[in-house]
Amino acid sequence: MAYVIPFYRGFRLETFVFRHQDADSVERKHDRTFGVSVRISRTTLEDPTSSTDPKVFRLESLPFDSIGEARRAGNSYAQSLIDDIVRDGLVKS
Question: Dihedral angle at the C-alpha atoms of 8, 61, 68, 35, nearest 10 degrees?
């Protein structure tokens, strides 16, 4: 499931929420926990649907109990990554 924030400081954000299963578990559990990854790419206000140089980052944390909680954490994580990139002067916002 992808959730897109079309434009944040010159970047396109896509948050991907997925079912998380413990790799060490031998049991078949049907717990509803979720992981999250984000894809960040450059875009413009003139054409926010086109994007270049996408990068994917996985949020390394405990699994989330709900899709909404995972999505909000992913959005916050992506925005903080972009804030760091802009603050460090790697790109202009």
Answer: 100
